[in-house]
Amino acid sequence: MQRNLLCAATIACVMLSAISCKKDDTATLPTASLSATSQTISESAGTASITVTLPSTQSTDVTIKATLGGTAILNGDYQLSTDTTLIIAAGSTSATLTFEIFDDEVVESDKTINVSFSSTNASLTNSTATITITDNDTDQSSSGLVSELTWDAGTLVDMDLYLANNVTISDDAVTDYTLLSGSTNNTGFESLLLSNDLDDADYYVLVYFAEGAREVTYTLTNRADGNTVYEDTYNFTADEEGGAYFYGPFTKSGTAYTIGKAANSVLWDVKLVEPHWHKGKIAK
Ligand SMILES: [Ca+2]
Ligand SMILES: [Ca+2]
Ligand SMILES: [Ca+2]
Predict the structure, then answer these.
(1) Among 79-93, 133-147, 231-245, which is the least confidently predicted range?
(2) Which parts of the sequence belong to the Calx-beta domain (predicted)?
(3) Ligand 1 center to residue 44 CA distance, Å?
């Protein structure tokens, strides 16, 4: 009986102690706040940032994790300049999450970066923030056929667009071509104009996989007179780096464009990868 009473008293003490400790832990969590929960910037802004601030310094590091979402494409529309795990070091009161915003030539809708913050050793006055990126590009489709190249989120890749004519295809391989122009952003999406001013002829758009180390799902959108006329995706593997895909022909007649050799023909007639690429006239 005495033993049972002792056990019951011990259990009660442990429970009280646990409750007491829990209360103390909660009470000591510092409260962090965000510098901006909603901001709107232009695509040309260069950078954007969100700072997490504590009201006073702490004796230990405070860790805040940021999780990204939204319609903006990581490493397409923007890239991270800092890690998504923010550490407010002991003795400091703030840490900043910074983004580089890519200023491409693609006409697109406004996009958002949604950031959710969480922490196991701080409480947050606001746990979400949104950065809205407004587009700054002008539709050129009245001047010709516009091809735009975008891709999925993932590690950074560099893909470029080129325009070629005098393309010679033999046994499903490109043996010669003349390069006319190119759009070569190192970061961000690409846009190319097949101008109404060019001679009537057959043209090809080249998607060149310049640099990257992952499979890429890309979308090539061609627009004439503001309408989408072709759109598709393809998985571009890392071992195809340095290769190009020829899409076409785009047969130009005045301001009208016919895509593919005939109705229902496949848009990409030729898939060109190294070493064939170096038979061409591009010096990268
Ligand atoms: Ca732009
Ligand atoms: Ca744009
Ligand atoms: Ca590029």
Answers:
(1) 231-245
(2) 30-137
(3) 6
